[in-house]
Amino acid sequence: MDVAARLLSEHGPRALSARRVAAEASSSTMALYTHFGGMSGLVRAMVREGFVRLEQHLNAVGATDDPVADMALLGRAYRRNALANSHLYSVMFGGSSLAGFSLSEEDRQAGRYTLLHAVECAVRCGAAGRFSTVQPEMTASQMWIAVHGLVTLELGGYLIDPLDADRCFEAQLVSLMIGAGDEPEAATRSVAASGQRLADVRSAD
Q: CB count, 10 Å around CB of 48?
């Protein structure tokens, strides 16, 4: 799946053939058909695997007594997954057709369970008086859309000095928390705390 995602990302749809994927993976076309039922099955498996890896990153974010810091850390985990699995990430959110293999609506919506992390966190932020409690699902979706947009630009190499990806991401996190109803000073502190928690995780790695 990693090989196929890399080929698609680096060389485009024409590179995604059973023969080339098998050769790049030091395998055989028969193995590809045995495990995935063909190229269409491989594409679907790539999308689902991408969301499994995203879920693993989000699951690592534990709930604390600072739910806004937790929300910011979910955003950091989303970005970290995208950078670690950039080829799969581009496949997960590709067009309506990937290398001629169409994805069904079910395929495309299969990964929405990962958004529940942000929805549940938005509810906790509201209960703590930090966010508006009107529409936690909308709050979570808006944050997903915003972070996804920044990460996509980052992967495309569009965010450069003096407004590089790190600087833009930090400012975006604070703005998102304020936009959801948090006080500016409190949002800034929580976002900073989330950054330290991520640094601690990286040190542990």
A: 15
